Amino acid sequence: MVFSFSKRKNKNSRLVIDEYSSGSSVSASRSSSFDQPMSPVLPDSLNSKLVNVLIVGQVYQDTIMTVDYYPQEDTKVRSSHTQQRRGGNCVNTAEVLSQFPKMSTSIMSAVGPKEQSHILLSQLEQKGIKTHTCFYRKSPTPSCYIIQCKDTGSRTIISCNTTQDITKDEFARKFEMSSITKTMSFEFDARPAYSWVHFEGRNVYETAAQIDWLEAKSTREGWRSQLTISVELEKPDRPHIDILLTRGDIVFFSKLYAEKRGYEEIEDFLRDFQGRCKPGAVLFCTWGAEGAACLFKGELLHSSALAQTHVIDTVGAGDTFIAGVIYCMTRGHTLLTTLKFSCEMASRKVSRSGFDGLANTMFKVWDTSLGAELNKAHQSTSNQNLLQSKSYENGFIGLEFGTITSRRSGTSNLTHSSSAPLLRKF
């Protein structure tokens, strides 16, 4: 596929990206916030550096049982497939994020006794996830049993967690130790130990205290502008979870959270909740099979999900979306690119079991979408360098990642008319 960039001189001064092979087009106002990189650092300089990300949440041991239908009470049902694996929102996001080049991902979680948890943590280390920021507890690592039904695609989750969550003082101690370790490794640049810290919306009051401590420390020491704090509000029934609304530069919402607040439309929810979040915050909300949306400075962008013929495993699709957002935004990509990439990757996740190979799949999507001319120019370049090139950022804005619509105060100024996938078969 070859992309053509042309200027149309009209009163709206739009930038048009034409896709020769499909005839569809994307047009965006030059002043749109979605076309501007979110980072003050240029993407080219970002791509040359390692990005350190800390994800704070809870590690689980998951047992996933696949059944033909949901069992009635007091009956016996045979599972067609049973899988045990690492789980929890923070682990799922870290597993996806660690697959991408120059992403150093750490998790901070409370786990069971060392003698019982060392295999779990070793498995995470083998995936490229750093676990030195975890805490050992006397109680066992939390566990989940997930009943996944073939007929409806529903998931029923039964969890058990008697482990004490991380306190603010524990968070501060581990964060300070990471800063000291960075200095002892002769990394004397002005960057903080982590440029992105993501918080799972649990342990609400301690999480709020952790974010407040991080805000105060980064502001006092002069590196707040180099730090992004994101928070996930997924489970609406957690007491007082709304106190986290004002604490994230990036806020992730779930469809369940919006529906429990009485909303049936994603746009209504995001616009109403924008005023309850930090001024200037970027809001993302996933909406299941209908895709996801992003709201920033009054402009709403929606991306449809990529239709999947075979839904195999929906566990962690939202966590995959978050990983896509963190990856794209730390690389300086635009919000338009970020939303399309993340929605595409989350859609592709449900057609596979687990998370392995998602980054490689997205490499192929990126590679395929730009056509022979760019491929020829980069034919001797590795996937890692290809993904980081500025040319790919320019081309990626025009990808067919489902229907894309953008609204500023309800007025449509960006549309994408095709929902055909670019990656046919790999």
What's the level 1 CATH class? Alpha Beta
Fraction of residues in helices?
A: 25-40%
Major sheet attributes: 11 strands, mixed
- Total beta strand runs: 20
Q: Kindly name the structural category.
A: alpha/beta
Corresponding CATH architecture: 3-Layer(aba) Sandwich
Query: What is the domain total for the residues?
Result: 1
Rg, nearest Å? 21 Å
Number of helices: 13
CATH homolog superfamily: Ribokinase
What is the molecular shape?
Answer: globular
Task: Describe it.
The protein is α/β, with parallel strands linked by helices and 426 residues long. The chain is 32% helix and 24% strand. The chain has an eleven-stranded mixed β-sheet with strand order 9-7-4-13-14-15-16-17-18-19-20, sandwiched between helices. Strands 6-5-11-12 form a four-stranded mixed β-sheet. Strands 1-2-3 form a three-stranded antiparallel β-sheet, with no helix packed on it. A hairpin with a 5-residue loop joins strand 11 and strand 12 (155-160). Helix 2 (89-97) crosses helix 8 (317-330). Residues 1-31, 38-46, 371-403 and 409-426 have low confidence and may be disordered.
